[in-house]
Every structure is written in structure tokens, then in C-alpha cells.
Amino acid sequence: MIKPTDVQIDKIIRTKRKTIALQIRDDAKLVVRAPYNLDDETISAIVSKHRRWVEKKQKEVATRNQKLYPKEFVDGEGFLYLGRYYKLNIVDDQSESLKFEGAFYLSRYALPHAQEVFMQWYKDKAFEKISERVDLYAEKRGYKYNRIGITNAQKRWGSCSFKGNLNFSWRLIMAPLSVLDYVVIHELVHLEERNHAKSFWDKVKMLMPDFESRRNWLKSNGYLLTLWSNK
């Protein structure tokens, strides 16, 4: 744990990036992404200059997290799917662990493992829907990718490897389709634009002219895409 003079840095991640970036995680910890050649002292000095921003964001996250509770998996509880909340029904006469038909139906025998059942259902649906949207937008621009993977990432919504592998967090299936599409387009454009230069955003905008509103939605509401609830 790195401790500069007045701001606690919980983790430093060094990559080939050219600039420094500050990230407040969902647990309110500060992560700094920095270039390989930037020493700890310089990083600490930069972070200290942004102390007020860090403290403000950490306070916002801490306040938000006080309103989050684990799902209880009871009748009538709401679960997100493609941007909408659907009620959960616990049923006795169902062979499938979990079924979706305008509402969620969870077999009573699956209750002891409800969270794992839901997570697997979300992962399966995420792969299905994301694959469909990737192919749709890849065809529009002639992008060629290698494969699609679904991850357990909590903060990173998507990634694109140099081998052309596209990875997406399963939590995206909880977001509105337009927001999911933004992340899909974002990663597809990375197949030819590796950084976030102006040319990258220009190409994103060609496929989604209002991408900024989708990106802002994710920044403001991404914490809701979880198996926790904000009661």
C-alpha cells in the first residue's frame, strides 16, 4: 500500500500508457495507472495535486455503497436485465433452475445456490447477446475479430487484445442495450485504434453519434449492474 503525504494510493498499475490516470474503485480505493518510467515520488506528487477530487469521489462512492445490499432472492425482488427490472418468482413445479418469461422464475430447489444460478444465467445471456451485437457492428465496418470471451470483471467493461480477442464483463447484460452496444463498438474500434486518440473517438462516433450519453450512463449507473441492490 503506497502512502504519499496526504493521499493514500492503494495500488499503482504501470503499463505502456503515456499519461497518468486516477481511478476510484467500487470499494472507494484509489488505483493509479501510470507509465512504466514514472517513479513513485512523481506519482505521489501528481496525486497530491488532485487530493480534493480524490476525496470527493471517495466520499461519493462510500455514500452510494451504504445504500447497497446483497440480493435476498425472495418473491417480488427486482433483477436487472437489459436495462429493466423484472420481478423474481420462487416456484415449485419447474425443472429448470432459472427461467425468464417476462419475469424471473427460480426453482425453490435452486435457492441455496441462487446467486451462482443467476450469475451463470447472466453469463450465458451476455455471451449470446454480445456475440449478436459484435457481429452486427463488425459487419458494418468490416472488422475482423478472433473470439469473444465473457469475464467476471467488476470495473473493466470490455477489452481488446492484440490477437483480436474481445472480452466483456457479464454485468453488461444488465445494462440497456444501447449502453451494451457502446461497449461493443468501443472494443471493436480498438481492433484498429489501440489508444484513445481523436481518431479512435471519431470512429466510435461514426457508429454511434451519441456515444457520449451512453458512456456517461455507464459512469453514473455502472455500480447498479451487480447482484446487490440499492434499497
Biggest sheet: strands side by side, in what order?
A: 5-6-8-7
User: How confident is the prediction overall: mean pLDDT?
Assistant: 91
Report the order of strands and helices. Answer: EEEHHEEEEEHEEEHHHE
Number of strands: 12
Radius of gyration: 20 Å
3D structure, described in words:
- By secondary structure, the chain is an alpha/beta fold.
- It has 2 domains: 11-65, no CATH class; 78-230, Zincin-like, CATH 3.30.2010.10.
- Helix content is 38%, strand content 23%.
- It contains 6 helices and 12 strands.
- The chain has helices at residues 40-49, 51-65, 114-141, 177-189, 198-207, 211-221; strands spanning 11-15, 21-24, 30-35, 68-70, 78-81, 84-91, 98-100, 104-107, 147-151, 158-160, 165-169, 228-230.
- The strands form 4 sheets. The chain has a 4-stranded mixed beta sheet, covered by helices on one side. A 3-stranded mixed beta sheet has the order 1-3-2. It has a 3-stranded mixed beta sheet with strand order 9-11-10, with helices on one face.
- α3 (114-141) packs across α4.
- The radius of gyration is 20 Å and the shape is globular.
- Residues 18-221 form the YgjP-like metallopeptidase domain.
- This is M48 family metallopeptidase.
Question: Care to give the gist of this entry?
Answer:
Helices cover 38% and strands 23% of the residues.
Descriptive key words:
231 residues, alpha/beta, Zincin-like, 2 domains, four-stranded mixed sheet, three-stranded mixed sheet, 6 helices, 12 strands, 38% helix, disordered N terminus
